[in-house]
Design goal:
The complex is a heterodimer of chains A (353) and B (278). Chain A is built from 15 helices and no strands. With 353 residues, chain A is mainly alpha-helical. Chain A starts with a helix and ends with a helix. Chain B is α/β, with parallel strands linked by helices and 278 residues long. In chain B, the strands form four sheets. In chain B, strands 6-7-8-3-9-10 form a six-stranded mixed sheet, sandwiched between helices. Chain B has a four-stranded antiparallel sheet with strand order 2-1-4-5, covered by helices on one side. In chain B, strands 11-12 form a two-stranded antiparallel sheet. At the A-B interface, helix 1, helix 10 and helix 11 of A face helix 2, strand 6, helix 3, helix 4 and helix 5 of B.
């Protein structure tokens, strides 16, 4: 066979089609624009873009916003939009990763008990830590530790019985651990009825408007998790052939799965620690991408980050404006749109992974 | 040097000895059919050779124990064509065959020119050149089988293990698939080990047959010697005629004239089965 023939039949790994990448980025930028523009005080797109221009030091552009408006834009709205984007991207990336690793298109990032564990951690912090310590500093840490601990337990139980190779065992272990942690959490909550309101608010999920500090807190974990998962995204496609075939293709399945699950869990736990339990993002977004673009994990994972970020920014806009000045918990907004969508996915997915 | 050497290989599955103290040496470039009744341990033996399940004893490839190899190193030496491979319907033929390059890439690397050329060559060899962008979901059974073999070729391993490579194919495609493997073996010096049920078909292609029963090697040799009426009756419980054709052999089942209970006590404890009087 000659060289021309080889070139003529050359195949390329299908990356992200430029049209979908462009659409996803446009969706994210549009969502961010809406996110910063919509609010009780009208800043105007012109004002926002001139302020952005000044910050980017584009010559000849000075902000047309007043000092108060500047600070609303950069200290309140922008950090909230960025946090929503970071958390949304993480949750949908973690969802897509879990779906690939467990070869089940219907699992979400809370599969292995991270939500129940974080819930217990947060409830303990709210109920038992003195007020001065509680609140902002200790709650995310407690939630993070609880979430990570739950997943660690799930993995240990799953390993001891299924040698860590059988994903069904792992999923069942996740259900067991989640039930146990939920029982503990409910018990603590019952014993401390005065904390009910606060725990409830946390569980329903929301993006706090507390400036850049939460972004700084969550970003390192999310960035690390995202980089690790995206670096391994080719291997997720190999895993979609099943453990045995992936192994026969030279993948150390147990190790790769552990790395991916740890990364997705650390990122999810960080997001949950700050924002509470925001459901359905990890299912809606990857599935919407699959239905529209029909792609493998190699392209699905990066697209999930971008689209998930945009999606949660939009959901948060609805959460804070629909009943303004009151806020609807973000978890309710995503569930309200997510549950019917999920039903639709169930009807149409027919086992396509 | 021998390509594969098994020494006292035993595999326990669910407390049962599925492969029992098997010693086996396969020379480089050999074409070996592993035959045996259902449950004899053929698939399990192949899986042990590819280190896809835990085993006792030792398995060496090119003189080195597989137990000491890294997973990717092992997969560069040995490729597996499973009986029922998963072929995600959304994946294109090109992407699927490219997965065969995984052991050459390490976990983090991206496919380079060499990998894409290996895929193009494999597609060419299997007459799939125009198929690169076709999703797997649109292929027929025979085409899928070829795509899976192409993936094994792209892996560029010198040993290919095939589990029932022809089970899902009609006779035309069976012949095509085995002819193709034969040509590949002749051209590239591949070592082929295939678990097969169709004895006649296996006898036309394999140079050597290894008959397993209850996890043990009970016969080993050229097809003419392994396929005898007596051996097949004993290990398959089947009554057949062996018909020589041009120095090769064909296996023809003998039809029962009337049914009588068969009192032979089998290992599985089923002591009375209906048998034909012949």
């Amino acid at each position: 066979m000659n060289a021309t023939a080889v070139r003529a039949t050359a195949v390329r790994p299908r990356g992200i089609a430029p049209v979908w990448a462009g659409a996803a980025v446009a969706f994210l930028l549009g969502s961010i624009a809406i996110g910063v523009a919509v609010g009780p005080i009208d800043l105007g797109l012109e004002g926002i873009s001139s302020s952005l221009g000044e910050r980017l030091r584009i010559p000849g552009i000075t902000s047309s916003l007043s000092r108060t408006e500047e600070s609303i834009l950069w200290e309140i709205r922008m950090p909230r939009v960025v946090l929503a984007a970071v958390v949304g991207g993480m949750l949908s990336l973690a969802g897509a990763t879990y779906q690939g690793v467990f070869r089940n298109p219907l699992v979400d990032p809370y599969l292995l008990g991270v939500a129940a564990g974080a819930g217990l951690g947060a409830t303990l912090a709210i109920a038992y830590l003195p007020d001065g310590l509680g609140g902002q500093q200790a709650l995310p840490a407690a939630a993070f530790v609880g979430g990570a601990l739950a997943v660690f337990l799930t993995y240990s139980v799953g390993r001891s019985t299924g040698r860590g190779r059988d994903t069904t065992t792992l999923v069942l272990a996740g259900v067991t651990v989640a039930s146990f942690f939920t029982a503990l959490q409910t018990f603590v909550q019952q014993q401390n009825a005065d904390t009910l309101q606060q725990v409830y608010t946390w569980i329903l999920g929301s993006i706090p408007s507390s400036g850049w500090s939460d972004v700084v807190l969550v970003l390192p974990y999310v960035a690390l998790a995202t980089v690790v998962i995206l670096v391994y995204r080719r291997v997720v496609d190999v895993l979609s052939l099943g453990d045995e075939e992936a192994a026969s293709l030279g993948v150390d399945v147990g190790r790769v799965r552990l790395i991916l699950v740890v990364a997705a869990t650390v990122g999810t736990a960080a997001a949950v620690a700050i924002c509470g339990l925001i459901g359905f993002v990890g299912i809606i977004v990857p599935h919407a991408i699959r239905m529209v673009a029909g792609v493998g994990y190699r392209a699905l994972l990066p697209l999930s980050v971008i689209v998930g970020a945009g999606f949660l920014v939009l959901a948060d806009v609805i959460a804070r404006t629909a009943l303004s000045p009151a806020e609807i918990p973000l978890g309710i907004v995503t569930a309200f749109f997510g549950a019917p969508f999920f039903a639709l996915v169930l009807r149409t997915s027919r086992g396509a992974a | 040097m021998s390509a594969i050497r098994l020494t006292a290989v035993t595999v326990m599955l669910g407390g049962r000895r599925v492969v029992d103290q098997v010693d086996l040496v396969v020379e480089e470039g050999a074409w070996v059919a592993v035959i045996g009744p259902n449950g004899a341990g053929k698939t399990t033996l192949l899986r042990a050779v590819a280190r896809l399940l835990p085993f006792a004893g030792s398995i060496e490839l090119d003189g080195r124990a597989t137990a000491a190899m890294r997973r990717s190193e092992l997969s560069r030496l040995i490729a597996v064509v499973p009986q029922d491979p998963s072929t995600p319907s959304w994946m294109t033929v090109g992407e699927y065959v490219l997965l065969g390059r995984t052991p050459h890439l390490g976990a983090l690397a991206k496919e380079g020119r060499r990998d894409l050329e290996a895929v193009a060559r494999a597609l060419e060899r299997l007459d799939l050149s125009g198929f690169g962008d076709r999703p797997l979901g649109t292929l027929s059974g025979g085409e899928k089988q070829r795509v899976v073999v192409a993936r094994a070729l792209a892996q560029e391993a010198r040993i290919i293990l095939l589990d029932e490579p022809t089970a899902a194919l009609d006779i035309g495609h069976q012949q095509q698939a085995l002819d193709l493997l034969d040509v590949l073996r002749a051209e590239s010096g591949l070592t082929l080990v295939a678990a097969m049920h169709d004895l006649t078909l296996a006898a036309q292609y394999a140079e050597r047959m290894v008959l397993l029963d209850s996890g043990r090697v009970v016969a080993d040799g050229v097809p003419r010697d392994v396929l005898t009426e007596e051996t097949i009756a004993r290990h398959y419980g089947a009554f057949i005629d062996i018909v020589p054709v041009d120095g090769r052999v064909a296996v023809i089942p003998r039809r029962a004239r009337r049914l009588i209970p068969n009192r032979r006590v089998r290992r599985d404890g089923c002591d009375q089965a209906w048998r034909g009087e012949r």
